[in-house]
Amino acid sequence: MTARPNSRPDLRYPLVDNGLDYLLDVVGRLATGPGEQPVARDLKYAVLHLQAATEVLLKARLQQEHWSLVFDNPATATRKTFDSAAFTSCTTEAAFERLRNIVGLDLPAKGITAVTRLARDRNALTHYGLTQPAAAVETRAADVLNFLLPFLAQHLMPALAPGERTRAEQTMTVVHAQLRGIEAYIRTRMNDLRAGLAKVADTTVTCPVCAQPALVLAADADPTCRFCLMTWPDTEEAAAEYSWIVTGEVSSTDPDPEDPVQHCPNCSARSLVMKVTTAASAPQTRRLCFACADDFTDTDFTACAYGCGRLLPVDTEETLCPACIGVPFERN
Ligand SMILES: [Zn+2]
Ligand SMILES: [Zn+2]
Ligand SMILES: [Zn+2]
Q1: Cα–ligand 1 centroid distance for 231 (angstroms)
Q2: What is the mean pLDDT of residues 186-214?
Q3: pTM
Q4: How many angstroms does the Cα of residue 290 sit away from the middle of ligand 1?
Q5: Within 13 Å, how many C-alpha atoms sit on residue 33's CB side?
């Protein structure tokens, strides 16, 4: 008989790495070039692995609450059987029920239905091969991704241990980047987002990660893409990435009046992108700050008289920028 390992309480999440690995495989199989469709074999494994990813990641969230919740019958759970993984785990249906009733998560009914349907597809594929039109299967897989990705961002990632979280975020960046190649997912998700995005069209720009017009800028929130859920706590990084990846203009490290990214006269962050196409302005471009979301399209700028390379609006009385005047200005 082997000795029981040191008591390793709830810091153990082998499920997350495992689930994300499945997910990575899924998006890799579903993503295609423009106008192409995934081949039948990729679709088959995408469904099987998406089912596995969903099951594993739902259980990972249950395990964050308490390890006994992943048991088929939590009343009989012991730490020993948990550590040896020699137990029957709960069904996906039970996992949903516990996430709602015990953990108290507000899960969309639409998402639960999508997962249930995918389980049916998985069974059909396992026993009979692909018996349904590929497009329908792909759409159902997309519906599950549309549930699973926000679930991970909202409910699973925030409570991960730091090391694990960094690893998970790295994987998710690759997952997000693949989404642009999954047409069925783009249709499903953009349909869901359309009404909400219409209200913020003035400050919605193309996301550098997923290439969808869903990156929303706001004064009171980090730049966040509603499509791929990527957020940029560093607004200067968001501005530089937008400029470089979306418009192809590289921002230099030193201030320069010709630079595509300038210091914002309002919030002072170097997050004012001089050529931004918003959902409302296309094909015209605007000057928009990625930190405070102020629009400076109609402001005339002049270079700071001290020659520091920053711009300031011509209608101010100053000829020096705040940095050169030495006035400490507020940073957001
Ligand atoms: Zn995005
Ligand atoms: Zn600003
Ligand atoms: Zn200056």
Answers
A1: 8
A2: 93
A3: 0.78
A4: 15
A5: 0
